[in-house]
Design brief:
Elements: E1 2-5, H1 15-19, E2 24-26, E3 32-34, H2 44-53, E4 59-62, H3 64-78
Antiparallel strand pairs: 1-4, 2-3
Pfam family, one: Fer4_15
GO molecular function: 3 iron, 4 sulfur cluster binding; electron transfer activity; iron ion binding
Keywords: 3Fe-4S, Electron transport, Iron, Iron-sulfur, Metal-binding, Transport
């Protein structure tokens, strides 16, 4: 599982930081930073809450295995 930030949507409000401070930090200039790339399955509910709390809908969680499979399908289909 990984966290994906849509930087074009992020407004730097920092609600995600208040929900999951071990994973998110908003810099002085309002730029959201991931401060923890490792995500355990136990942390999933907390991160899902951070995603839901984002008013700009700038966050999402992706399953790495699903993402790799989608990329493989797109790559295989590209040459046809």
């Amino acid at each position: 599982m990984k966290i994906v930030i849509d930087r074009g949507r992020c407004t730097g409000i920092g609600i995600c930081e208040s929900v999951a401070p071990d994973h998110f930090e908003v810099d002085e200039d309002g730029t959201l930073q991931l401060i923890s790339l490792g995500i355990s399955e136990d942390e999933r509910p907390l991160l899902e809450e951070a995603v839901r709390s984002c008013p700009a809908r700038a966050l999402r969680l992706e399953n790495r295995l699903e993402n790799r499979m989608e990329n493989r399908v797109e790559t295989q289909g590209a040459g046809q």
